[in-house]
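Sequence in, structure out. First:
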Amino acid sequence: MQEERRARFEVLVGEVGEPLRRYLVRRTDADSAQDVLAEALLVLWRRLDDVPQDAALPWCYAVTGHCLANELRSARRRRGLVSRVGRLAPRPEVDPTPQLPDPELQGALAALRPQDRELVRLWAWEDLPPAGIAVVLGITTNAVHIRLHRARARLSDLLADTDVGKSRRSVGHNKVERRASP
């Protein structure tokens, strides 16, 4: 029984380990990402029977997101304690937005509300479909469609007056046009 569980866990980690690591690296520093990944894998081991077969990756993103939120909350508390004790000055907040090569895009993403920013990241960076995003965020697929539409519109508006907006026609996934065979 234990060997079957271990084998299932190893298969799951093989499928989701690297996507979860990338998810965390895009949201926090490398050291915290490793710690949070370890915590998330521990939760996955404990809750292995709860992992849905048809939506394992989105479910694991949701677990990892909760672990990251716990880590960020703990770090904030530690900084507050250090500040109150007065031994050290508090460290600055960690910017969860990775350094993008395009400063205009980075600025536009930073200007979005945190919920919109996470929605766009899950869609554009993690390449999740709306149903998967719904699992991660704990909302309905319909709500994802609506919120994603609005977030993309806000991002597009923010980029409209920049060089990025003038050189790109749309924000997000590029659609590939297929030509009919001759």
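Second:
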Amino acid sequence: MSTKTCLQNVERARRFALHLPVYFRQPQTPTWLEGMTENISYTGVLLRSSYPLALKTALEMRLQLQPGAKDTRGAEIRCKGAVVRLEPRDLPGTPIALAVAIRDYRIVRGDVLRGSPAGMSGKTDPPKTGPCTD
């Protein structure tokens, strides 16, 4: 008879080593911070950023997807989640790694990004390079 708990039976989600620009902010704040993904799965994202955050910090994120060969519109993954792990780096000036568990996401196509009021925050303009405000 097996004595494993449910948690022991759960397999780790497959990670994809994708290096994409990611913009994130705490809900209800106007400033988007910038980072770069290190890997992504359907359950979370590991990103590098110069902006350390506390564990359990709630976040809204926007991951920029590049357009494909047949589709020039591009897309964005918009998601909500929380910081579940911090990985400080040993070298000074090296960005910290933040592991963020994703609890909700959706994919927004390029035509929606340019003309529709859709979005988690009600703002449709993608953030500029570096911290910015809405």
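Remark: The longest helix spans residues 110-115.
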